[in-house]
């Protein structure tokens, strides 16, 4: 006999969600508890990992700023205006989310390495192939859709009428956006920046193809993890992984805590 | 003051068709119409949020059709307030003056002055979200008025408020208009707002202004079937109110109608719902204060109810149920007695 106090569907599905949660926690604990605390500390403070932290922070902060400068205006246009080809633009701009990062990296490598435009940039001293600049380009390309999507939905949630009113109170179009819409989009903007930055720190595939995995040169935390793993240096690899895990947890917390209504 | 000439705009869902409108300085114009009539889009086009497809907008002799909203000095208040949530009430009210780069001392002075006029000076430090609907709308009105606009546009400013707050703010709007003499265009679908606020009323339908004039004239002499059925108001009478023996008497074309409510000694509109008027062959002895004798001029049978028009010197409409009418057994041209209570006479 079935009993409404004891639905098997409820129990089975809740059980499934707990199983998944448990699985994730086990994996994370396995990584961080593998080496002793002292070994972990020594590895994290080693010059190579310090370099990787520095490289990761630098590239991810710059790529996040680029995403803000380019994706926020684009998101505004997609939220506010209707124009020819908007549907196609929307669909294509989401593409990097689904595209395997290695494919994106290959495209970037061909763009900066073989085209006239890439060569012209190289002649001006902006070399992207096998340099930290390449890492920034990879992070930007793979992660701007996060910034774009969150900001687009944030702008869409703010009624155009706020800007209308601001304009009747003497604002130009730009002032209305600057003094009203952007402050109102604050929490969405903050959440989008944190997610874009965290994704940038973890970017591996696209960066691997365009910037290579060169120790002491294009060695970010994921690259350090990969390089040390391939030459059996488990403790160093785990120390890089641990830092990535911490960044992931903190940024996810910030996103959920301060992200407000923003959704990916 | 403001003149629109054959203004047209097609926004798909909403449309504006050849709207020609003349607004005189200091007047309070109320535009009323069903949902989707294009009322909001008319205001938004006048404010300059989008260019019209054709037509012209002239303000004080100057063609402003294509100049940006910021240079028009036309302010807008929406139904849902649109206060900037990241700013305090004071910063909201001072927003426009700050944009005009006025000095902070002056902004502060003007803001407080305006807040006092709208009785929200005790709320200046608060964020909009902590205010009640009525308070938020007062703040939004203050934010517009402080700009000393050439024209103030109100888009259903009272529709989001509950009954009592609405009545209060409506009276307030009248008072503020009397004090500031600002030219107002007010959109609504509420008839009371027309009668208590409007110098003139315009009726809008399907993107067009179908009739414009003073409220009495428009409601008494609708120019089309649509207006008649849209206004749908029977028994609207203009008269002067005075107190007699603790009850108010309204003098309408020489006839006295008694009402339980009165707003002081002045010109008022009185309405009586047709179903509140009782018809009888002989005079009825009852506590009802109003009793008239008249002649039936028209009988309309629409199945469910019978609508009877009686001339008692002024035309009065009564609605009866089919059974009530059958019992009465009367025909056009016959004499009939009308009875209704003082509490059935609504005054505004």
From TrEMBL, chain A:
Predominant localisation class: membrane
A Gene Ontology cellular-component term: plasma membrane
Localization per record: Cell membrane; Membrane
Segments traversing the membrane: 12-32, 52-79, 91-112, 124-142, 234-255
GO molecular function: ABC-type sulfate transporter activity
Keywords: Membrane, Sulfate transport, Transmembrane, Transmembrane helix, Transport
Entry annotated with the keyword Lyase: no
Name of the featured protein: Molybdate ABC transporter permease subunit
Lineage: Archaea, Methanobacteriati, Methanobacteriota, Stenosarchaea group, Methanomicrobia
Family as reported in the entry's similarity comment: Belongs to the binding-protein-dependent transport system permease family.
Pfam families: BPD_transp_1
InterPro entries (alphabetical): MetI-like, MetI-like_sf, NifC_ABC_porter, Sulph_transpt2
Start and end residues of each ABC transmembrane type-1 domain: 53-255
Membrane topology value: Multi-pass membrane protein
UniProtKB/TrEMBL annotation, chain B:
Entry keyword Disulfide bond: no
Catalyses which reaction(s): L-arabinose(out) + ATP + H2O = L-arabinose(in) + ADP + phosphate + H(+); D-xylose(out) + ATP + H2O = D-xylose(in) + ADP + phosphate + H(+); tungstate(in) + ATP + H2O = tungstate(out) + ADP + phosphate + H(+)
Main location: membrane
The entry's keywords: ATP-binding, Molybdenum, Nucleotide-binding, Transport
GO cellular component, one term: transmembrane transporter complex
Top-level taxon of the source organism: Archaea
Subcellular location per the Swiss-Prot or TrEMBL entry: Cell membrane
Domain ABC transporter: 2-231
Enzyme class: translocase
MF-aspect GO terms: ABC-type tungstate transporter activity; ATP binding; ATP hydrolysis activity
Pfam families hit by this protein: ABC_tran, TOBE
E.C. code: 7.3.2.6, 7.5.2.13
A Gene Ontology BP annotation from the UniProt entry: molybdate ion transport
Membrane topology: Peripheral membrane protein
Stated role: Part of the ABC transporter complex XacGHIJK involved in the uptake of xylose and arabinose. Responsible for energy coupling to the transport system.
Entry similarity comment: Belongs to the ABC transporter superfamily. Sulfate/tungstate importer (TC 3.A.1.6) family. Belongs to the ABC transporter superfamily. Carbohydrate uptake transporter-1 (CUT1) (TC 3.A.1.1) family.
Subunit-level organization: The complex is composed of two ATP-binding proteins (WtpC), two transmembrane proteins (WtpB) and a solute-binding protein (WtpA).
Protein name: Molybdate/tungstate import ATP-binding protein WtpC
């Amino acid at each position: 006999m079935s009993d409404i106090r004891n639905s098997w569907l409820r129990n089975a599905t809740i059980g499934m969600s707990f199983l998944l949660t448990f699985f994730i926690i086990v994996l994370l604990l396995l990584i961080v508890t593998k080496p002793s605390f002292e070994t972990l500390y020594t590895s994290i403070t080693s010059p190579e990992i310090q370099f990787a932290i520095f490289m990761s922070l630098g590239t991810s902060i710059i790529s996040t700023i680029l995403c803000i400068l380019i994706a926020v205006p684009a998101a505004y246009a997609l939220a506010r205006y209707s124009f020819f080809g908007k549907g196609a633009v929307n669909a294509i701009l989401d593409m990097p989310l689904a595209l395997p990062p290695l494919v994106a990296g290959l495209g970037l490598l061909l763009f900066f390495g073989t085209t006239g435009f890439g060569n012209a940039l190289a002649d001006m001293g902006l070399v992207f192939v096998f340099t930290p600049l390449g890492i920034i380009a990879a992070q930007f390309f793979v992660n701007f859709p996060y910034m774009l999507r969150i900001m687009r939905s944030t702008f869409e949630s703010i009624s155009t009428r706020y800007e209308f009113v601001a304009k009747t109170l003497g604002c130009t179009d730009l002032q209305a956006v600057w003094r009203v819409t952007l402050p109102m989009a604050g929490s969405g903007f903050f959440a989008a920046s944190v997610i874009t930055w965290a994704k940038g720190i973890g970017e591996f595939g696209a960066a691997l193809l365009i910037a290579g995995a060169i120790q002491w040169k294009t060695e970010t935390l994921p690259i350090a993890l990969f390089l040390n793993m391939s030459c059996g240096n488990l403790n160093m690899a785990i120390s890089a992984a641990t830092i990535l895990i911490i960044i992931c947890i903190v940024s996810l917390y910030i996103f959920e805590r301060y992200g407000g209504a923003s959704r990916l | 003051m403001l003149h629109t000439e054959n203004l047209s705009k097609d926004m798909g869902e909403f449309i504006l068709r050849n709207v020609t409108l003349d607004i005189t300085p200091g007047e309070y114009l109320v535009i009323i119409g069903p949902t989707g009539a294009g009322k909001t889009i008319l205001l938004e086009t006048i404010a300059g949020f989008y260019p019209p497809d054709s037509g012209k907008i002239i303000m004080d002799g100057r063609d402003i059709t294509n100049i940006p909203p910021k240079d028009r000095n036309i302010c807008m208040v929406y139904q849902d307030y649109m206060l900037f949530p990241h700013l305090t009430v004071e910063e909201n009210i001072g927003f426009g003056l700050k944009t005009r780069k006025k000095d902070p001392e002056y902004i502060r002075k003007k803001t407080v002055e305006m807040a006092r006029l709208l009785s929200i000076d005790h709320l200046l430090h608060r964020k909009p979200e902590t205010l009640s609907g009525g308070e938020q709308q007062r703040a939004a009105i203050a934010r517009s008025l402080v700009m000393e606009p050439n024209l103030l546009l109100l888009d259903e400013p009272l529709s989001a408020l509950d009954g009592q707050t609405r009545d209060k703010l409506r009276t307030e709007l009248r008072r503020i208009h009397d004090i500031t003499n600002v030219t107002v265009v007010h959109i609504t679908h509420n008839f009371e707002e027309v009668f208590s606020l409007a110098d003139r009323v315009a009726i809008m339908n399907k993107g067009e202004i179908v009739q414009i004039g003073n409220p009495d004239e428009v409601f008494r002499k609708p120019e089309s079937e649509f207006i008649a059925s849209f206004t749908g108001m029977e028994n609207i009478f203009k008269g002067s109110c005075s107190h007699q023996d603790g009850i108010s008497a309204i003098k309408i074309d020489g006839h006295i109608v008694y009402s339980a409510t009165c707003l002081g000694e002045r010109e008022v509109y009185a309405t009586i719902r047709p179903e509140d008027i009782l018809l009888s062959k002989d005079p009825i002895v009852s506590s009802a204060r109003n009793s008239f004798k008249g002649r039936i001029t028209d009988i309309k049978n629409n199945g469910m109810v019978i609508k009877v028009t009686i001339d008692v010197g002024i035309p009065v409409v009564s609605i009866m149920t089919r059974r009530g009418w059958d019992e009465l057994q009367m025909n056009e041209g016959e004499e009939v007695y009308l009875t209704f209570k003082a509490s059935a006479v609504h005054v505004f």
